[in-house]
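Lecture notes, structural biology module. Today: joint structure prediction for complexes of two components.
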Amino acid sequence: MQYTVDARGLSCPEPVILTRQALNDKSIKHLKVLVDAAVARENVTRSLLQATGKQPQVTETSAGEWEISIKL
Amino acid sequence: MTSEKKRMLGAGLLVGLLGVVLVLLGNPKNMGVCVACFLRDIGGALGLHRAEIVQNIRLEIPGFILGSFLAALAFKEFRPRGGSSPILRFFMGAMVSIGALVFLGCPLRMVLRLAAGDLNALVGLLGFISGIAVGIYFLKKGFSLGRSYPQNKVAGATGPIFAIFLVVLALVAPAFIFQSESGPGSMSAPFIYSLGAGLLIGVAAQRTRLCMVGGIRDMIMFKDNHLLSGFAAIFVVALIGNLVTGNFNLGFTEQPIAHTNHFYNYLGMLATGLGAALLGGCPLRQLILAGEGDSDAMVTVMGLIVGAATAHNFGLAASGAGVPVNGQIANWVILALLVVIGLGARETIRVKRAHTKNTGKEVRA
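The predicted structure, tokenised, for the full assembly:
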């Protein structure tokens, strides 16, 4: 199942908390996280790498907004 | 070691080094850099409180904001935004300030005090960690101050413009600005060094996201030591610096601008740790975010200043003599208020907006 976490506009550490919560759901096979701050992009990417051992794919969807995508 | 980690250690090294150097250049002992103390001094200089020994336009503060602003512009990270519970942030900022002035220092000064051998700061650190742990409990239970949204450039520029205003006031020194003639407020490095050090730290902290609260929070919550490594680097470098320059004095008593009331050193920092964890960053981080265009962080900075002024007006702030009764009562009151905020502020919009385009399934936040 594909699943999207919208973490835009949320302060630290909420984007990472939501991402980790989504990772706990084993039915999710493709996770996308939307962020709109460089710090959230870095934290979520680092957290996903640390938790899964896989490098997530980061795409800038519009100026200052990113979609972080990972296949689980 | 990743380049990200190297940069973080570099930033910690810079902050630790400047923390020691600024004392040599004239700042009060163990107060090379202290965000709570300096905002309190600025509040005094602006006449918001009349504690005569702590009034000074500390140029490190505008330096932090402007350094962050310039770095954010250069790296295209200046992003005007706001609207995430500004009034709660204002009062939480004030509470963080009051907790810090019961202990006598922000989280950054706590590290610098510890690096100078002041063991009261170790008690403060325990309180700080406890406060962050309580904050994490609330965060895991769904605490949120809500989303911020993009704003116009004028709102985003409030922080940098306020910083420039402070620099101008310091240079022009009009008669309505207060300046201490004795006490800690009278001691400061020459302004060009204060401003320069502030700018350097502002750039480094913006690039690395250095944050005292974040370091401990991420370690407890995610076993992620990235931010904590910056915190550790500040401590190690300042410790070496203090040993070399003879400013290291191990013990509880006769520490500069500190008291030995263990209970309130613990409880003051507990309130600061809790408030800052809920705010998403320590006082330094709030200044850096204000420089990046985060108007909510700028509201928090205003809260920090007003809280510090109130701490002096109401006789809450500690001194070398100890913590006044008013300060002890205030400490309990702000803890109770922070618990109410921690339990009460929940995000409901998150679930609605998290509705996904692809699956129609909602995030269980």
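Point to remember: Residues 3-24 of chain B form the longest helix (22 residues).
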